[in-house]
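Researcher: Next sequence.
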Amino acid sequence: MLKFTPILLAVLYALAMYHFSAWRTRKELDARSTELADADLLRLCARLAQALDLPRIKVHIYDITPVNGLAAPDGRIFITRGFYDKYRRGEVSGDEMASVIAHELGHVALGHSRRRMIDFSGQNAMRTALAMILGRILPGVGIWIANALASLLAARLSRQDEYEADAYAAALLTRAEIGTEAQKSLFRKLEALTGARGATTPAWLLSHPKTQERIAAIEALESRWKSVSET
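Model: Next structure:
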């Protein structure tokens, strides 16, 4: 029984972390967000809602400076103040913002938001259990190996989610007659907008796929759709 104690403790820790993280995220978003009121973006949201046969899509502005979009575990969609300010200054178009909203809707529809919270807790559990076990076998380096393995797993799962949300957004934008060009043009801008320097980092270490790989995946989808429509 004792040999299973680290795993049991890790599972209990994961459950506690999941509930705490969900509560902390909800409290933070409630305290620092307001509902989107921009008329032009609301019209684009209405087109997305119509394409999904929904009465409306609510989007909130999350009052932080980093450029990002967020799908909360409870299904709400957020655009950061930093992203919205880029739009207000003309650095990002309305259609490009609509592509962000469509992408985050993809995370919600595909269950990524809630699963990421669960995965995060599970990865922490795995990290803790591996650190306990490997720390005994390989003192000094066991904890480092455990952290590296957990980080690699998290990055791989996150990249897969991003590809799936991109595909959902491409289909939704096409159905809403907004199109995918804004989605692809935003990808080309993201590194400059966010200050990221991911081009020098191996793709398998990134939580998001590389820009050209994301664009290529969307163009492959478009080619398949075109082939189907011509048959």
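Model: The longest helix spans residues 142-175. The radius of gyration is 20 Å.
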